[in-house]
Amino acid sequence: MRSLAPCPSSPNCVSTQERGERHGVAPFRFQKSSEGAKEALKAVVGQLPRVKLVEETESYLHYEFTSLLLRFVDDVQFVFDDTTKTIHFRSASRTGYSDLGVNRRRMEEIRTLIEGKL
Fold first, then answer.
1. Would you give the distance in Å from CA 72 to the centre of its chain?
2. Domain extent listing, the chain
3. 67 and 49 in contact (C-beta within 8 Å)?
4. In terms of pTM, does the model score above 0.85?
5. Which residues does residue 66 pair with via DSSP β-bridges, in sequence order?
6. Are 15 and 90 in contact (CB under 8 A)?
7. Under CATH, which architecture does the 13-114 domain have?
8. Which end of the chain has fewer CB atoms surrounding its CB within 10 Å, N or C?
9. Span 29-58, pLDDT tens digits
10. How does strand 13-15 pair with strand 73-81?
11. In 1-118, where does DSSP find H-type helix?
């Protein structure tokens, strides 16, 4: 399984592969095949504003989200683990120190939108 880069010390990143309250977040779980889960996730994420898919492999997705006002770019990566039926992810700002919780809120919004579709 592809691993995700660790979060930096700044509070502008969340990841399922981090521990602790500052950066850690629970992964998504899926019941479908990993391909079916990937297609469902792509359908949900693709409907979000200012998002661009930049890389896709069999078990990996990388998106860029651009903020409306200042055009900051956040990288959101998903890794599908078919063995554990888990989608690990990392959402991080490219620049700046604080994101005012934007990355965590985005991933929780995606969790809500994808619920029942995986």
1. 16
2. 13-114
3. no
4. yes
5. 73
6. yes
7. 2-Layer Sandwich (3.30)
8. N
9. 999 999 999 999 999 999 999 999 999 999
10. unpaired
11. 34-45, 102-114
Structure tokens at 47: 């409907």
Q: Per-residue pLDDT tens for 54-94?
A: 999 999 999 999 988 888 999 999 999 999 999 999 999 99
Residue 22 token pair:
């500052």
What is the tens place of the pLDDT at every residue in 26-36? 999 999 999 99
Q: Which residues contact 61 (CB under 8 A, 6 or more apart)?
A: 38, 41, 42, 45, 53, 55, 77, 78
Q: Look up residue 62 and give its two tokens.
A: 């990388």
| Beta carbons of 79 and 88 less than 8 angstroms apart | yes
Angle (CA) 74 78 84, round 5° = 155
Q: Which of 71, 98, 72, 77 is closest to 8 using CA atoms? A: 98
Question: What beta strand segments (E) does 8-108 contain?
Answer: 13-15, 28-29, 51-57, 60-66, 73-81, 86-93
